[in-house]
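Technical annex, item 7. During the second reporting period the consortium partners agreed on a shared format for inverse folding records so that results from different sites could be compared directly. Each record opens with the tokenized structure and is followed by the designed sequence. A conforming record, contributed by the partner at site C, is shown below for reference.
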């Protein structure tokens, strides 16, 4: 039986490794922690603890913010502060309860470079403002399509993107990441539809994610339960 927080930390490390590799950046893992070797875009962690016994020395040299997966570290003496805490949620493997996606919603399993660019652009708008933009490939380059463990989901209405989500499959779980919808398309069931797709229920694997306060009720309605919490440590002005 796998420790549920370990499942979450493992999925987060795998997701980060995949995206950094797609950007041509290096990462490493020694069993106690995952670390970015090269400086990465600010949306990515620089280090993730993989065991509750991991010491601060395993992550202090990481380049970027630190995901303290069990909230066991005190990094204040090193000049870091807790920027945010989020619950780890886990859903047991198996089918989801029957639910009808909104009729107007088109869910696309991303398969082309143009669709990756579309996903990146709508994610920037979903997590920021609807006017936000980014240079294509800054965070999510199309080379990610070379990694079969990563599945990207795009939501469209009337041919226009309104949201996105990501699935990352490890040997033991499916990590759900980046679920978002733009502000003008919220409260219409699109986030739920994206999440139901992203848990990859056909695999029979448990699904794991770190939840924002805003998304928690949605995930709990889909059968996710809290198993722990993480702390994000950052140097002053080190995250946005």
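Designed sequence (site C submission):
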């Amino acid at each position: 039986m796998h420790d549920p927080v370990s499942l979450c930390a493992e999925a987060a490390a795998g997701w980060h490794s995949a995206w950094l590799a797609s950007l041509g950046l290096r990462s490493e893992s020694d069993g106690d922690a995952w670390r970015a070797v090269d400086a990465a875009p600010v949306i990515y962690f620089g280090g993730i603890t993989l065991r509750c016994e991991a010491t601060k020395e395993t992550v202090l040299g990481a380049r970027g913010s630190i995901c303290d997966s069990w909230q066991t570290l005190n990094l204040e003496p090193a000049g870091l502060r807790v920027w945010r805490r989020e619950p780890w949620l886990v859903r047991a493997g198996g089918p989801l309860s029957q639910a009808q996606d909104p009729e107007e919603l088109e869910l696309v399993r991303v398969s082309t470079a143009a669709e990756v660019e579309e996903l990146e652009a709508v994610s920037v708008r979903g997590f920021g403002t609807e006017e936000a933009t980014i240079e294509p490939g800054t965070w999510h380059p199309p080379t990610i399509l070379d990694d079969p463990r990563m599945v990207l989901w795009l939501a469209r209405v009337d041919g226009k993107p309104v949201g996105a989500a990501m699935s990352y499959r490890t040997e033991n779980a499916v990590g759900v990441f980046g679920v978002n919808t733009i502000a003008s398309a919220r409260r219409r069931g699109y986030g739920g539809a994206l999440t139901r797709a992203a848990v990859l229920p056909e695999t029979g694997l448990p699904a794991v994610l770190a939840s924002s306060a805003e998304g928690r009720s949605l995930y709990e309605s889909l059968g996710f339960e809290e198993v722990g919490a993480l702390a994000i440590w950052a140097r002053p002005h080190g995250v946005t």
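The mean pLDDT is 95. The two ends are 36 Å apart (CA to CA). All partners now use this format for quarterly exchanges.
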